[in-house]
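Trying the structure run again after the queue cleared.
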Amino acid sequence: MMSDETRCPWCGDVPIYVAYHDEEWGVPQRDSRALFGMLLLEGFQAGLSWITVLKKRAHYLEVMDGLSPEAIAAYDEAKICSLLMDPGIIRNKLKVRGAVKNARAFLAYEAAGGCFSEFLWGFTGGKTLDNGFATPVEVPAHTPQSDAMAKSLKGLGFTFVGSTICYALMQSVGMVNDHLVHCPRYRQLGGQKGAPLG
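Done. Tokens:
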């Protein structure tokens, strides 16, 4: 059982945030549609805190068809307007329209024979990068890998995919292991750097 002293400090003691840290954050995800959905949520998070999106995630899944790219790509103006009037999501016009644009870009990429999961994981060589950070100040906001991912996604027609958003995605879906070395989840997710944990 993790204590607040050993767990990564960013989640504090908020139950929904603690559960996300303990059960989801940093777990490798290789399903293309799940990765697309997380990319959309990271885009909605831009300029806000992740907990804001986390608290709204269930409602996003409800009103945006489970974040299905096929469904979102087909949204018309009426659907977009209804979303912009929904207080259960982040009602940012550019972000909502950006989600539709991203869904269409995702479908176009896969229709051309691409695999979105292989594309994203290609920026880490197909494996989790073990960073082995000891303190929060060591954790970067972006890296050369996230810079390259952002540039490539924009080239494919995606939006709200800046390097900071891409790095947050990489952290959340286990492309990097950014649990601090003293956090039990670091070792549980394969981390090897730093002093052995007792």
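The beta strands are 129-130, 176-177. Worth checking whether this holds up in the mutant runs.
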